[in-house]
Design goal:
single chain; 396 residues; mainly beta; four-stranded antiparallel β-sheet; 2 helices; 3% helix; 43% strand
């Protein structure tokens, strides 16, 4: 079924509720493409299904599950966090909605407002909230190991490496915490544009440096030990007559392959930079805010119009484009062997051949919709739906 998306809906999705009043047109601006019709080359079976609260409901969110320590960990926006074994049996549950500090921002409503996804490291699960808290939970029991207040909303999952937890807040603070105690190591302020997308890029930590996509259209490298800026590269230049036109966020998680960095900006470019030399290798015009994926010698991109691309990593040459999912609000791509997988807002998963860009299979998972890329393991595909279902698919 073709569905019209109105400008106010798209604006709220990208910019956040505070900007919704700027857009009050009720005219249709784009049309969602119909579900593509093709013959499945294979089918995928459901292994098990369970639930984690009410999911993210209708909120824009990057909250996604993580698979680690022979377990699946998932959370809901409200505050429920649950661990399951790989057969779907619940191991433990924790409810952060009861944490007293939630009232700092959400009044008397017990809502943890978990938004940015989970990170597993050091036998712990790390997460941040829109209530400006970072938590570390014991991966075996779900007990809260520590809780730390930071300078603003945490919209992306924490980066954890070298016993340091790094988060970027919505108001421009890059914060480093001790991974074992939660003690703050440093906090630096990065200038923010007057208007930006609601999401934030998860940081990447490598070789003692933090690689961060910023709201000013730049990628910055910071020293993990102190937060000192080492290097920055501009992916997009603000232009246009309105604040909306000038949004250039780098909200896609940068990809690092050896010393080669790949990053993309909204209203900007997809860029390849060599970190050893600091030299830009190539630059191509793409606009995206979903995370990139890489396999073999290819990069895979979902752009703002929900076209899916395969791009040669070495030179930036476009290998194929799949445009049949336009405006279906498609997730970031995930790699599944010689396929990539994307989901859409009506709850479909699509498998696309990595080499040709042709559809190979599709599956209706849940009508509440998919909003984050599936998590692919050696024998499972883990999907979290908008209404809180956690589903394991058999990929054997």
């Amino acid at each position: 079924m073709v569905r019209a998306w109105r400008s106010v809906s798209l604006a709220c999705l990208l910019v956040g509720l505070s900007a919704c009043s700027l857009f009050n047109s009720e005219e249709d601006v784009v049309q969602m493409a119909p579900v593509p019709e093709f013959s499945n080359q294979f089918t995928v079976a459901k292994q098990w299904e369970t639930r984690v609260g009410d999911g993210v409901e209708k909120y824009f969110s990057a909250l996604s599950p993580v698979v680690a320590y022979d377990s699946v960990f998932a959370a809901s926006r409200f505050g429920e966090i649950r661990a399951f074994d790989l057969n779907g049996k619940r191991l433990w549950q924790q409810n952060l909605s009861k944490v007293e500090s939630n009232n700092r921002f959400s009044g008397n409503t017990p809502n943890a407002r978990i938004s940015g996804g989970l990170t597993a490291a050091y036998k712990r699960i790390y997460l941040g909230t829109e209530n400006a808290d970072v938590f570390a939970l014991d991966a075996e029991t779900g007990d809260i190991v520590w809780q730390a207040a930071v300078s603003g909303e945490v919209l992306a999952k924490p980066a954890v490496e070298d016993s340091v937890v790094v988060v970027m807040t919505s108001n421009g603070h890059l914060v480093a915490l001790d991974a074992h105690s939660g003690e703050q190591k440093w906090d630096i302020k990065i200038d923010q544009p007057s208007l930006s997308l609601r999401s934030k890029a998860p940081a990447v930590i490598s070789n003692g440096a933090i690689i961060l996509g910023r709201s000013d259209g730049k990628i910055g490298l910071y020293l993990l030990e102190s937060g000192q800026l080492l290097f920055e590269s501009k992916l997009a230049q603000p232009k246009g007559s309105t604040e909306i036109d000038r949004i250039v966020d780098v909200d896609s998680r940068p990809v690092l392959v050896g010393s080669q960095l790949y990053a993309v900006a909204y209203n900007g470019n997809l860029v390849s930079v060599n970190l050893r030399s600091g030299e830009e290798q190539w630059r191509r015009s793409y606009s995206a805010y979903q995370n990139l994926a890489t396999a073999g010698l290819s990069l895979f991109v979902t752009d703002v119009s929900d076209n899916v691309y395969s791009i040669e990593r070495n030179n930036g040459v476009e290998q194929w484009t799949q445009g049949a999912l336009s405006y279906r609000i498609v997730t970031a791509p995930a790699i599944d062997g010689n396929q990539i997988i994307v989901g859409d807002s009506e709850g479909y998963l699509y498998w696309i051949n990595r080499e040709t860009g042709e559809f190979t299979s599709k599956m209706l998972v849940d009508k509440s919709g998919l909003y984050v890329a599936p998590v692919v393991t050696s024998d499972k595909i883990i999907v979290q739906t908008r209404n809180g279902k956690l589903i394991a698919l058999d990929r054997s």
